Amino acid sequence: MKTQLKEMKENERLREESKRIQTLRKQRSELEQSLFDKETIISQFDNEERLREERKRIQTLMKQRSELEQSLFDKETIISQFDNQPTRKQYHHVNKEEAKDSVDNNHKTFMIKPNIPKFSDPN
């Protein structure tokens, strides 16, 4: 009887230990899932932060580009006033055809002259 009682107590203790182990495994699984979720959120936040910084950097570069284009346009205007030539359009507003036309108009066409001897040549 004592042995049966001991066995019953031992079995009861083992069941309780088994329940505790299952509870701990479940808690561990929940904690791992929670950790994974938090790491995902942190990763997304870091990506968003990098994206914000990149957008800010791009805006700064575009602003600098605009300022440089305006400065170049102002300088061309001043130079053309000295040359008494009309000002050119800003670069980003000129399409390829207009740019090609303005370049073609600035250069004179090359003409090949025929080799005709002068009458004063003794040959």
TrEMBL record:
Annotated keywords: Coiled coil
Biased composition, class Basic and acidic residues, residue ranges: 97-107
Segments forming a coiled coil: 7-71
Region of interest called Disordered, as start-end residue ranges on this chain: 97-123
Protein name listed in UniProt: Uncharacterized protein
Record organism: Dreissena polymorpha (Zebra mussel)
